[in-house]
Design goal:
By secondary structure, the protein is mainly beta. The chain has a single domain, classed as Roll (Chitinase A, domain 3), CATH 3.10.50.40. The protein has two helices and six strands; from the N terminus they run βββαβαββ. Strands 1, 2, 3, 4, 5 and 6 form a six-stranded antiparallel beta sheet that branches.
Length: about 120
Amino acid sequence: MSENTERTRPEVDAPEGPAPTELEVVDLIVGDGAEAQPGSTVNVHYLGVEYDSGEEFDSSWSRGQSINFPLRSLIAGWQQGIPGMKVGGRRKLVCPPELAYGPAGGGHRLSGKTLVFVIDLLGVS
């Protein structure tokens, strides 16, 4: 397997300043494998934290196994922020509420929140 199996759980520094109103995509490590396309199914390790509190709300690392998802079934921020990423890469996405779980009162516990994800792309199909 590639270097991903040895990669460690990411740390997310507490964001500073106001939350962004548009999707922020930052490559922390640029991969050199296959490139994710909008219709891809992706195998990822990820960590999610709330922008305002810095509190972790979800992590595949905590469960000890990566997750396989069709991109089209994920939140809009992932659908827009993962295509173009290459296997072996690590990318940070900062998703405003409209690209995450919608406005406050939307029925999801994370509705109305800006979310930060650090995603390791392990595979695409």
